[in-house]
Amino acid sequence: MQASSHRKPWYRVLYIQVLAAVFIGILTGYLFPGVGKSLKPLGDGFIKLIKMLIAPIIFCTVVHGIASMGDIKKLGRIGVKTILYFEVVSTIALVIGLVVVNVLRPGDGFNIDPTTLDPNIGQSYVQKAHALTTVDFFLNIIPNTFVDAFVSGDLLQVLVVATLVAFAISSMGDRGKAVLHGIECTSHVFFGVMHIVVKAAPIGAFGAMAFTVGSYGIGALSRLLALMASFYVTAAFFVIVVLGLIARYSGFSIFRFLNYIKDELLLVLGTSSSETALPGMIEKMRRLGCANSTVGLVIPTGYSFNLDGTNIYMAMAAVFLAQATNTPLDLPHQVTLLIVAMVTSKGSSGVTGAGFITLAATLAAVPSIPIQSLALLVGIDRFMSECRAITNLIGNGVATVVISRWENEVTKETLNEKLRHPIHSGRLI
Question: In this predicted model, what pLDDT tens digit does every residue of 74-95 receive, in sequence order?
Fold first, then answer.
């Protein structure tokens, strides 16, 4: 009874505020397109505030998690399990995307002549995609300087630096305990800043959604509605069925889990970037009982290696463009497409539009599909980005809990109790 007396009024609950802001943003962009376009800085500003905190939060989380583990074998075991899980689930996402787009064939009947499309639009994305070659990708994991990882905000670079620092602290013995305590206290500071910043989420979601609708319009989506509907349905199927079965096997309900992270899901919906929800996901996975070391390893790594929504999108979008331009794409070509997509998808990191660039990299490696056909998707990519980011976020959250369950860090009973009756900090919810 006492807990219920301290419940916040509904209008002060974050996810309700974000949902209302998204709705108002859609109306503003639809009714007043000019005003909607001018509100872009609100969304960009909020995303920059969140991204400002990601590198230090990831650094502190990974360093503290690994250095306090004291068991290098466990770290290696978790790392191997994580990579194997990511590769299996990501491949399933790609296969599902290919199957659905071949069954539904949303691109049939478009009969687009690629020569009539603006080649400069596709080419601009191909130029960006050149940086996503396999060799450059692995070289880019190593920062130019120690602080460069924090300046660029590349999550894999931060992960490399944090891992090296964690091993160095572990080798210091008792002297490292003071450093570790300092890092733990520093992480509390950054999470405290995050709690302050996240209060501006409704403003950011309002600005981002008003700009999106004001710039591209709702009516302009009608011709490509079949692809959008197919993608959203496929992503929902993947979350409910594939991730649902994985969650059930691990002893928890996917629907309870989705309810548990609803704040983060709505934050991603408003901003179209899964990175805005990263600090909140780290905190909520910890509250479920997942060890700091597991959370610190799985969540950041997943942002580059476990992009289920991006994989589904790339498979469906590539075949859709082939269908729309009447480009023959037989089974061997589609298998090649799948293999190439497995590599290029690792270059996307949760940033808005990154999925579109990795699609360009995939098409550049599979020249049978005309690269200029990318121009067909530019107008709807922002709307597709929201679904990609949400699916990526859910996939990484489920992966964290599953790996934690495999490591016996949290029991099925404790996990379900916390999902049924989440204890919130009172600042995020």
Answer: 777 888 888 899 889 989 999 9
Distance of alpha carbon 429 from alpha carbon 426, whole angstroms: 6
First-to-final CA distance of the chain? 19
pLDDT tens, residue by residue, 202-217: 888 888 778 877 876 6
Element (H, E) at 177: helix 175-197
Distance CA(375)–CA(362), nearest Å, equals: 15
The token pair at 333 is 């070509």
Residues in contact with 108: Cβ distance below 8 Å, sequence separation at least 6, in sequence order: 323
Tokens representing 183? 């890092």
CA 89 – CA 81 distance, rounded (Å): 12
CA distance 154 to 235: 26
| 207 CB-near residues (< 8 Å, 6+ apart) | 25, 39, 40, 41, 42, 43, 44, 45, 46
C-beta of residue 409 within 8 angstroms of C-beta of residue 250? no
CA distance linking residue 196 with residue 24, whole number of Å: 23
Distance CA 407, CA 194 (A): 29
Residues in the chain: 429
The mean pLDDT of 249-265, rounded to a whole number, is 91
pTM over 0.85: no
Asked if 311 and 79 touch (Cβ cutoff 8 Å), the reply is: no
Structural domains in the chain, sorted by start: 2-420 (1.10.3860.10)
Helices (H) and strands (E) in the chain, counts: 22, 0
Distance CA 47, CA 208 (A): 10
Tell me the average pLDDT across 356-380. 70
